[in-house]
Structure formats: structure tokens, C-alpha cells
Design a protein that fits this description.
The chain is an alpha/beta fold and about 300 residues long. It has helices at about 25-30, 45-50, 55, 75-90, 105, 120-130, 150-160, 185-195, 205-215, 245-260, 270-275, 285-295, 300-305, and strands at about 15, 35-45, 70-75, 95-100, 135-145, 165-175, 200, 220-225. Strand 7 (about 200), helix 9 and strand 8 form a beta-alpha-beta unit. The protein is globular. It has an 8-stranded parallel beta barrel, surrounded by 6 helices. The longest helix is centred in the C-terminal third of the chain and has 18 residues, at about 245-260. The chain starts with 12 loop residues before the first strand and ends with a helix. Flavin mononucleotide (FMN) binds near residues 98 and 202.
Length: about 300
């Protein structure tokens, strides 16, 4: 895996940005299990530039998770530039720009995947963010807007020309949402069209699939999102444990990191979403998930976790 700007990575496996999930404790956990670099959830440039406390809290970071990329989204170059300046005062490694989010309220404002339809604006955002930060800047895109506008290769060249140090490509168009097949051929073409590192993304569920996608696409790295939920083992060759006992070790470590690096009682719903994922595919898993969702506090969740007999 080559460097992203000056940031060197130990291996090609990357934790994708997932709103509602890739907070500080989960990012540290994934680094511990082998991810080379981790991406934050998308952070509003408006929230940063206009001092919203909740948005600034999303910049919480720790030496243990580095290298880390903080992802911002927005559609106004000057506000994105201001967000980049603010982020650059924090001890992080990369600024990533979201150019792939399909959510209506984001796209309606011209941000996220809508930028793939507006190359000039996207170029201006990349340039201004680069100009306002000494950190390397990457972008995360889709293959295009719809099947008749698969523009990822030209878009990637534009990004490289305007200063981007790397590109992650989710192999779907905006109109595909999260359905349909991942287009690894287009990801491969993107890889072959630029000199900066390209990271392929989409539907990778196991370590073995990650290795296969890496080989098939020729990419410098692969990014894993949903496949890492309740399954940080996806980043290590040993694979996902079959037994509940081993999975509980991962959950216990995750809960410990949550306790240490966040404010658990304010994010109980989010913690339950994470915790429930550890029981996917194990015997009795759905009953355990129901108990997790019924827990009334973080303490209750901890007690429940330690009382599970296996
Ligand atoms: C719940 C959820 C939240 C997501 N949040 C973000 C985000 O904040 N920024 C981003 O660029 N992509 C986001 N994505 C897209 C993922 O990073 C990734 O591109 C997509 O899920 C495909 O990869 P996967 O199949 O490995 O999950 C999100 C996806 C999901 C399912």
C-alpha cells in the first residue's frame, strides 16, 4: 500500500465512513483488529464553520486510532475551506471530502453525490480545501450519478489535477443507492487512470473477499463499511469467530472502549445498534439482540453482556 500523501499505511484495509457508527471507540477497535486507517462519519462543514457544539464533538480523536481521516461534507467551497482550516488544528491525518452520499437532504443542497453532476463545483471545493490545509486531502465518490453517467474515471482525473492525494470509490451510482451489483470494473478503470492511490469499496463481507477484491481491481486498498459492524475481525486474517464466546471478547473490548472514550449514556441507541451486530448468525442471536434493545442504560447493557452464558 503506497502512502496517501505523507501518511504511510501498514496494510491495504480501510474502515469506511459510516454515519451513526464510525465514532472514536469503534475506530480504535478497528485499528486494534488490523485496519490500516479509519474514516470518521461525515461531518457538516456548516456545523464546524458555525460552531455547533455537537458537530465539534465529532472531531474527538485519539493517538490510538491514528492514522485517521476526518470526512466533511458540504457544497460551498468557502465554507468547506473554513471547515478544513478548523479540522487542521486537530491531531488528525487526512481530510476526506464526501462526494458520494446519496441521502436526499444532502444531495438536495448540492453536496455528497450531487457533486458528481457538477464537476466545476467539485473541483473548486477540492482546490479550496487543499489550499486551506497542510493535510493531505482525499475524496470519496461513487461511480457516477446513474447508469448513463458513469463518470468516475474523468472525475478522478479532475480530483488528481486539483490536488487530491487519494480517492475512494464505492462501486455504485447514486441511483443504485445500496442495491444492485458493485461495479469493480469501473473501480479498476479508475485505478488505471490516475497516479494517486485508489481505494475500492462495496459489499466486502470477509477478509478473504477483501483480498480477492484487492487483486481483482488492482487497487491500492479496499474499504470496508457494513462488513465491519459487529465484525472487526474482517480486518484480520483469522476471520470472524464462529463461537459466541470469542465474539463476546470483541464486544467486551468494544464496550470498554466506549466507556473509556465516549459518554455512553448519551449514545445508548447507537451502542445498542453496534452491540446487536455481534450476534448476527450465531445460534440464539435474535433473542440476545432483543434483550440488548430492551436495556435501559449502559450499565444494564454491560450487566447483560457479562451475564450471557455460552
Ligand atoms: C449506515 C451507513 C452510513 C454511511 N455513512 C457514510 C458517510 O458518513 N460517509 C460516506 O462517505 N459514506 C457513508 N456510507 C457509505 C459507506 O462508506 C460505503 O461506501 C458503503 O456502505 C458501501 O460499502 P460497504 O458495502 O462496505 O458498506 C454509509 C453507509 C451506510 C450503510
Amino acid at each position: 500500500m503506497p502512502n496517501i500523501g505523507p501518511v504511510s499505511l501498514d496494510n491495504p484495509f480501510v474502515l469506511a465512513p459510516l454515519a451513526g457508527y464510525t465514532d472514536l471507540p469503534f475506530r480504535i477497535l478497528c485499528r486494534e483488529y488490523g485496519a490500516a486507517i479509519v474514516f470518521s462519519e461525515m461531518i457538516s462543514c456548516h456545523g464546524l464553520a458555525y460552531d455547533h457544539d455537537k458537530t465539534h464533538e465529532m472531531l474527538a480523536s485519539h493517538q490510538l486510532e491514528r492514522p485517521v481521516a476526518m470526512q466533511i461534507f458540504g457544497a460551498e467551497p468557502d465554507i468547506m475551506a473554513e471547515a478544513a482550516r478548523i479540522i487542521s488544528e486537530h491531531p488528525i491525518d487526512i481530510i476526506d471530502i464526501n462526494m458520494g452520499c446519496p441521502v436526499k437532504k444532502v444531495v438536495k443542497k448540492g453536496a455528497g453525490a450531487a457533486l458528481m453532476k457538477n464537476r466545476n463545483l467539485a473541483a473548486a471545493i477540492i482546490r479550496q480545501v487543499c489550499n486551506n490545509s497542510s493535510l493531505p486531502v482525499t475524496i470519496k465518490i461513487r461511480t457516477g450519478w446513474s447508469h448513463d453517467s458513469v463518470v468516475a474515471t474523468d472525475f478522478a482525473k479532475m480530483a488528481e489535477d486539483n490536488g487530491a492525494s487519494g480517492i475512494a470509490v464505492h462501486g455504485r451510482t447514486w441511483s443504485q443507492g445500496f442495491g444492485g451489483e458493485v461495479d469493480w470494473q469501473t473501480i479498476r478503470r479508475v485505478k488505471n487512470s490516475v497516479a494517486i492511490p485508489v481505494i475500492g469499496n462495496g459489499d466486502i463481507a470477509t477478509y478473504q473477499e477483501a483480498v480477492a477484491c484487492l487483486e481483482m481491481s488492482g487497487c491500492d486498498g479496499v474499504m470496508i463499511g457494513r462488513g465491519a459492524l459487529g465484525n472487526p475481525w474482517v480486518f484480520s486474517g483469522s476471520g470472524t469467530p464462529a463461537t459466541l464466546a470469542e465474539r463476546m471478547e470483541g464486544l467486551a473490548r468494544h464496550l470498554h472502549l466506549i466507556q473509556k472514550y465516549s459518554n455512553p449514556d448519551t449514545i445508548l441507541a447507537r451502542i445498542k445498534n453496534h452491540a446487536g451486530r455481534y450476534f448476527k448468525g450465531v445460534a440464539g442471536g435474535s433473542a440476545l439482540r432483543r434483550q440488548i434493545y430492551a436495556a435501559s442504560s449502559f450499565e444494564a447493557l454491560l450487566e447483560l453482556t457479562y451475564s450471557i452464558n455460552f
